[in-house]
Amino acid sequence: MRLSRGFSLLEILIVVTIMSAIATIAIPNLLKAIDRSRQSSTVADMRTIGNALEHYAVDHLSYPTESDLETLRRELAPDYVKKLPTRDGWGHPFVFEVDRQGSSYTLRSLGKDGTAQETDLVEVTLDFAADIVLVDGVFIQKPARRKDAGDKDPGSTTQTGTPPTQGDLG
Predict the structure, then answer these.
(1) CA dihedral 67, 126, 139, 79 (to 10 degrees)
(2) Cβ-based neighbour number of residue 17 at 10 Å
(3) Strand 138-143 to 124-125 pairing
(4) How many CB atoms sit inside 10 A of residue 44's CB?
(5) In this predicted model, what pLDDT tens digit does every residue of 57-83 receive, in sequence order?
(6) What pLDDT is stored for residue 2 in this prediction?
(7) Reading across the β-sheet that carries 105-109, which strands appear in turn?
(8) Residue 110 is inside which H or E element, if any?
(9) How far apart are CA 12 and CA 126, in angstroms?
């Protein structure tokens, strides 16, 4: 009678094969979920900045005229936002551009790859490397929602995106 004190080589190979198959399926899904989370936090941060800029424009009749993020942070925090996000979910700095009159702005996340998009902008994208672009409070390029990639996000286009004029105030 032989007493078995461990696993045979065949049993170990079977277990390793099964674990490899599970990892092959699970790891890409995990990485995609992490990117989706980073993308969602970027969109939320961009909405926060956009809302702060809109409130600033109501008080000052224009957007801040400096394109530097540090200057923008000093202009908006703490009066319009407690803490201004300056980096997207992937750790890249946001790109903020404003015209000289302060009548229009563009806020851009360079996406997962951190490089500016060379191709034309599309309204909804599934690509994590694509830029996310907010112009005057309205997303002109954003990630698709998970449930239905073709739907527009009704909450992202509610602002007019134009600063008020003297005539608007009374």
Answers:
(1) -60
(2) 10
(3) parallel
(4) 11
(5) 999 999 998 888 899 999 999 999 999
(6) 63
(7) 95-98, 105-109, 132-135, 138-143, 124-125
(8) none
(9) 40
Return the pLDDT at 120: 77
Residue 121's pLDDT is 78
Domain ranges of the chain: 10-164
Tokens of 106: 């563009």
Q: What residues form DSSP beta bridges with 108?
A: 95, 133
φ and ψ at residue 102, rounded to 5 degrees: 75, 25
Q: Which long-range contacts (CB under 8 A, 24 or more apart) does 106-113 make?
A: 106/133, 106/134, 106/135, 107/46, 107/49, 107/50, 107/53, 107/133, 107/134, 107/135, 108/132, 108/133, 108/134, 109/42, 109/46, 109/133, 112/35, 112/38
The answer to whether the pTM exceeds 0.85 is no
Query: Domain 10-164 falls in which CATH fold?
Result: Glycoprotein, Type 4 Pilin (3.30.700)
Six-digit token pair at 25? Answer: 């399926």
Q: Alpha-carbon distance 62 to 42, whole Å?
A: 25
Are 165 and 147 in contact by the 8 Å Cβ rule? The answer is: no
